[in-house]
Amino acid sequence: MQTLEEREHRIRRLTGKAIGDFGLVDDGDRILVALSGGKDSWTLLTMLELLRRRAPVEFSLIAVTVHPGFPGFRTEGIEEYLRQSGFEHRVVPAPIHDLMLKKLEPDDVPCSLCSRIRRGVLYTQAHELGCTKIALGHHADDFIETLLLNQFYNGTIKAMSPLLAADDGKNVVIRPLFYVPEQEIIAYASEAGFPVTCCACPSCGDPDQKRVRVKALLEGLESEHRGIKASLLAALSDVDLRHLPHPRKNGGAGG
After folding, report:
1. How many domains does the chain divide into?
2. What whole-number distance in Å separates Cα of residue 101 and Cα of residue 110?
3. Which of 148, 172, 175, 218 has the most crowded Cβ, counting Cβ within 10 A?
């Protein structure tokens, strides 16, 4: 059984590997860390801070928590922990709950709308705070699940990128937990004693959501054949276009 220090070392190493492999952090970066209060964002912030202290380049961090307006979502524990740990931090209100009530039908899944609003708030905050990068807490399982979701339901081979220039042409999004499995984060966050805070969204964990179903599928496959998730993650960086079909846009060869 791993100790907290051993687990922290492994996650820090995997985070540093992603930063190095994909060029996620540059000298002089000011990084906005999207801190929802969940296990992933706490792990992300902690790993970036640990790496910052020993990195050969200088960069700074500021944690930004988007308050979605869901009844029951509290930020006091988040703010107190960050104050005691010496992190620069900001809580920003967003009308996510109100817009969900106005725009969505009772059976609609709110995740897409919530994500768009959060991303817009983070982009605005990054500009106001002079940040050069926005760090999100997507881990290895998120990348794999997104790959399968797009294949199953959208007919595309697409996931997420560890380094993404946003459509607005101004912001850069980084995902340093690319190599970190979710189970490592679950164990680490529990042992580290972070004040993990539920988003209080009424749809959180709904078993009918497509992502929850894909997650269950992957867990079942992994339990039968250990290494399947690692293989899928590796496939994201090893795409052989020569052996994928590309229809001719001009309608094919003439006769």
Report:
1. 1
2. 10
3. 175
The one-letter code for the residue type at 121 is: V
202 lies in some domain: no
142-167 pLDDT tens trace: 999 999 999 999 999 999 999 999 88
d(CA 106, CA 59): 44
The CATH number covering residue 174 comes to 3.40.50.620
61 bridge partner residues: 31
- The pLDDT tens digits of the residues spanning 157-214 come to 999 999 999 888 889 999 999 999 999 999 999 999 999 998 877 667 665 578 888 9
pTM reported for the whole predicted model: 0.91
Cβ atoms of residues 24 and 55 within 8 Å: no
Give the whole-angstrom CA distance, residue 61 versus residue 239.
34
